[in-house]
Design goal:
Elements lengths: L15 E4 L4 E3 L2 E3 L1 E5 L2 E3 L2 E3 L5 E5 L4 E3 L2 E8 L2 E3 L2 E9 L4 E3 L2 E8 L4 E2 L3 E3 L2 H16 L4
Parallel strand pairs: 1-4, 2-5, 3-6, 4-7, 5-8, 6-9, 7-9, 8-10, 9-11, 10-12, 11-13, 12-14, 13-15
């Protein structure tokens, strides 16, 4: 992964949480910093809004659920929709069973996406959310 200055990004500031290869976590995870998945997560993974966060799913790691993070490096399996607001790297062993929403994406030869790829800009998402909020606040006659 690269940041805006084209330097490799392998971690972000903050602590690192590891889900070990033999571990199975059932339930939703909300995190900041780095989350490394070597085992299996059955539930959604979400980064705290407005915080730096990087999800790494290594070869052999798996997530069954929706993922919403700013940055992700995937070389394992995701069964669910993947929302990455900044940068997504799909390595050669990555397999995604679901739709992928991304701002910047890097895909290696050999990765698999069984779903749609949709480019989305964080600014466009913010404008859409504001438009929906204004419509809800507007009284109808």
């Amino acid at each position: 992964m690269m940041d805006r200055k084209n330097k490799p990004v392998t971690t972000v500031k903050g602590s690192t949480t590891l889900i070990a290869a033999d571990a199975v976590v059932t339930g939703d995870i909300k995190f900041v910093g780095n989350l490394d998945v070597e085992g299996k997560v059955v539930g959604s993974i979400t980064a705290e809004p407005g915080q730096e966060a990087l999800l790494r799913i290594v070869a052999g790691g798996a997530v069954e659920g929706e993922v919403r993070v700013p940055s992700a490096m995937v070389n394992g399996t995701v069964r669910g929709d993947l929302y990455v607001s900044e940068r997504l790297e799909l390595a050669e062993k990555a397999e995604v069973q679901g739709d992928v929403y991304y701002n910047l994406i890097e895909m290696a030869v050999g990765c698999k996406v069984n779903g749609g790829l949709r480019h989305s800009l964080p600014a466009a998402d913010d404008l859409s959310a504001k438009r929906i909020q204004r419509a809800a606040e507007t009284p109808t006659a």
